[in-house]
Amino acid sequence: MTVKKRLILNLFEMNCVSHITHGLWRLPDNNRERFNDIEYWIELAKLLESGGFDAVFLADVIGTYDVFRGSADTSIRQGLQIPNNDPALVVPAMAAVTRHLGFGITFSTTYEPPFAWARRLSTLDHLTKGRVGWNIVTSYLPNAARNFGLDGEIDHDKRYEIADEYMDVLYKLWEGSWDDDAIIADREHNVFADPARIRPIFHDGTYFKVEGPHLPSPSRQRTPVLFSATASGAGTQFAGKHTEVVFTGGPNTGFLKQTITNIRKAAVEAGRRADDVKFVTQAGVIVGRTDAEARAKRARYERLSDPEGYLAHSGLTFDPTRFPPETRLKDVVGEDGNVGRRRIFDPEQTVGEFLSSFGDLTRHALFVSGTPDVVADAIEGWLDDVGIDGINLTQYHSYDTARDFIELVAPVLRQRGRLRTEYDPDESLRDRIFGAGDRLPDRHYATRYRGGAHLPVIGQDSALPA
Amino acid sequence: MPAVPSARPRPLHFAAFVMNTTGHIIQGTWRRPTAHQTDFNDLEHWVGLAKTLERGKFDAIFFADVVGLYAPYRGDERKYFEAGLQVPSNDPSVLASAIAYATKDLGIAFTASILQEHPFNFARRISTLDHASKGRIAWNIVTNYLPNASRNFGLEGLTSHDERYAWADEYVDVTYKLWEGSWEEDALVQDRATGIHADYDKVHKINHEGPRYKVEGPHLVTPTPQRTPLLFQAGASEAGRTFAAKNAEAVFIVSPNLDAAARDTADIRSRAVSYGRVGEDLKFFQGLYIVPGSTEAEARRKAAELDEWIDYDGQLSHMSGAVGIDFGHEDLDTPIGELKTEGVQSIVGWIKDLVPGRPATLRDVAHYTATNSRIVGTPEQIADALARWQAAGVDGVNLVNAEIPGSYEDFVEHVVPVLQQRGLMQREYAEGTLRNKLFGRGDRLPDRHPAARYRGAFAPQPA
Asked: In sequence order, which residues have a C-beta less than 8 Å from that of residue A3 and are 6 or more positions away?
């Protein structure tokens, strides 16, 4: 009998009120609007660690959703990812009250020079003793571009080109700039670090020019666990080369399977193994002790679910509420069914059908509602039949969603051998996910810079040209 | 020298001057068996220190930072690695939320260069931390004087001094617009019944367009307890003083003596008045290094023992690398006035007050970078000395360490009680934000600060 695949369990979070379940912040006792308070994050981190979660996965955007109806009106009214706060900065406080919980932090490669971000992530990896992951994004909001001095978005494929060079700079800093034995801390001879084992990177590329050396010493994981979320062509190629955990999405399980196949293939083409990449998918779970309890809970959530928030979130370039429901979608957006942000819908469906999916909590590739056994059955199916490795749990209610999962679902998954019974002590996030140590495997592109390989040779007299 | 004033003094403010690295100001002391500076990668190291400081009623922990290596010394950067002199170093800002959670009143000041981050992102990070700390964040605004740091961010070399301050002027302007002008005070509604989270009509884009930045907005974060964080600045140059006079609420100075402190504080205060502010809008923090003992003899013995650990070559390298003049090949007994290098005059000016009556040498420079503004004595003598600094116009102390946490534990245990007794240090924290704790007049910037002009500035004008 083969070993059962164990679930990677993350909570999907964002440092804002309305992340992905719009309207539900209004639920009684929902803590969403406490996100400004550090105590919110402390309580959450402790809860997740008590339940054996692998990580909290923090989404982020750096602009507002202002395409729908031509303004940010709907987003601001809904609390739809505005206000929103920086995700990286709440991590140290959560790290201080936990020992095992991992942290997936979203940051964009498009608008900021890479040097400061490389340093910040290394600092976080030191502070957490190797519990940090980075969700690499390239940003898709036009307003984000205009917040950073551009007139509009950079073309999608070019963003991935920038991201690829950005990664190259970071790998040089993380993997190549400092040798493992560079810190000597020799008190007697007054040598803290050995300059011969530390080097600048002299990166000089199309988009970035960075001298180095990296300022922090090597952290436990060096390169944090690399996440990315994509299914596009450029994104697939990027994930094949760089990503360790792909955050996959899509309209149905067939799409998920195809994405997994494509990215594994891209990974192999990039010289990696197919199983060097894990797949984590956003999943909705509404669980009750009885079927009736689950149904009642779902009904409470559905009652407040607000389609307006989903419409604004989708960045629709048109307002479907202004058309008669029987209008064909293709007559509004054209034959390709592109409704904005590269989202393709069936052009033959009516606007009414199209609209009905917005705010419907069940319209996700992975959704289950029912008793703990029903939920566990579904999750086993996702692991074995769809082929994913883990879930980013959608929050309907903070903290009920996580608490319900911990109290009702986790014990059943443990019984079935699908969830670890306890954390291994003193494990890095990468080691927990892949079981092969703290660092990237040798076949990952980043490791080509180890020991200063593929970096400019440095003169013996001078670490840097004067 | 001003006399010890007889009137009961106001409490001075105290900040702990630290850096997320091994060798900050006093080089070589990391080797002492009791020193833990090398633990700077650990969260516990900083949380523990923050708790000690709060126990001692310190106003703030103040993190220095640089984003590159110092300029070559003896031809290269070898010395900085060997001494752990500000390399390796970690980002200080990410320590803030953990420190905020572990403390209740301690202010958290950190240095961030305008070089390292776009102001839109930076403003958001500061606001996030001001929320997380309930209004205890201070930003030490710096430009950058290290060529390597410039080259880490894609530039060919240092931006000229005046251009750096023009850059800083626009950078803070963008952040002021985001912090003060983007969200109206009552924009956040959070009405569960109607489902209205925020009032769209009270959230504004800033549409900044300047020579260097173009930023649309709105700010992504709601107004924080302080909105604009407490603004720290340290600039001794002409442009730096002007910038401080316009913007700073707290100024970090390292005046070589009381007369210079009196001169510096009076100068910057009078410049502030010319910008429509009042002298009391600025608090001056003098960098000081304090070695206490239960008797003067014991204090002197401790200081002498610490001196044995000081790496004077490291001290000289720091000065050398900071001003960009390589003293590494010079004889230590060379009178500095004889060096015909451009830029050396600023050091000559600084050292001549410390070495009266004979030509100062490089050895003096090395010595005084470690011991300048050092107070060695009993707690009572330290209190007397601090009272004299106060009389010279200084409002607070940025306390340098030889050891972390030892220097601060020593200070909290032995000096703080005496200072409190003398009325030179607070016994309890004031309520509210860091700004209110320091100035006692509310959480927000006063109306005469340049940032305040953006309040309500982006709201649609009534027809």
From this structure: none
Mean pLDDT lowest for which of A122-126, A250-254, A423-427, B303-307? A250-254
Output the pLDDT for position A458. Answer: 60
Contact between B20 and B89 under an 8 Å Cβ cutoff? The reply is yes
Q: What's the pLDDT score for residue A462?
A: 41
Within 10 Å of residue B193's Cβ, how many Cβ atoms? Answer: 6
Give the separation between CA A125 and CA A429, rounded to whole angstroms.
10
Q: What is the pTM of this model?
A: 0.95
Residues B207-230: tens digit of each pLDDT: 999 999 999 999 999 999 999 999
Chain A closest CA to B371's CA: distance in Å? Answer: 20
| Region at B50 (left for phi over 0; alpha for psi -120 to 50; beta for the rest) | alpha
Length of chain A, in residues:
466
Spatial distance between the Cα atoms of A55 and A463, rounded to a whole number of angstroms: 39
Would you place residue B295 in the very low, low, confident or very high pLDDT band (cuts 50, 70, 90)? very high
Domain ranges of chain A: 8-306+366-452, 315-357
Residue A369: in which H helix or E strand, if any?
strand A367-370
Whether residue B207 lies within 8 A of chain A, CB to CB, comes out as no
* Average pLDDT over every residue of A203-222: 97
pLDDT at res. A337? 83
Residue ranges of the domains in chain B? Answer: 13-295+375-454
pLDDT at A247 over 90: yes
Report the distance separating Cα A16 and Cα B325, nearest Å. Answer: 49
Mutation target to probe the B interface, by most B beta carbons within 10 A, among A25, A94, A147 is: A147
CB contact under 8 A, B100 and A37: no
B152: closest CA among A200, A192, A187, A314? A200
Question: For A69, how many CA atoms within 13 A lie in the half-sphere containing its CB?
Answer: 15
Q: Where are the alpha helices (DSSP H) in B161-291?
A: 161-176, 238-247, 258-274
Q: What is the pLDDT of residue A463?
A: 45
Check if the beta carbon of residue A200 is closer than 8 Å to that of residue A463: yes
Neighbours of A254 (CB within 10 A): 11
pLDDT > 60? residue A460: no
Helix or strand (DSSP H, E) at A114: helix A114-127
* A425 contact partners, CB below 8 Å, separation of at least 6: none
Contact of A60 with A107, CB cutoff 8 Å: yes
CA distance B75 to A464: 9
Omega within 30 of 0 (cis) for the link into A213: yes
- Cβ distance B28 to A36 less than 8 Å, yes or no, reads no
Query: Which B positions 65-124 lie with beta carbon below 8 A of chain A?
Result: 67-69, 72, 75-78, 81-84, 87-91, 93-98, 100-102, 116-118, 120-121, 124
Q: List B residues 290-319 in contact with A (Cβ-Cβ < 8 A).
A: 311
Model pLDDT, residue B337:
83
CATH number for the domain whose boundaries are A8-306+366-452 = 3.20.20.30
**Mean pLDDT, range A401-410, rounded to an integer:** 98
Q: Topology of B13-295+375-454 in CATH?
A: TIM Barrel (3.20.20)
Mean pLDDT taken over chain A = 94
Q: How far from chain centre, in Å, is Cα A355?
A: 27
Q: What is the pLDDT of residues A281-309, one digit of tens each?
A: 999 999 999 999 999 999 999 999 999 99
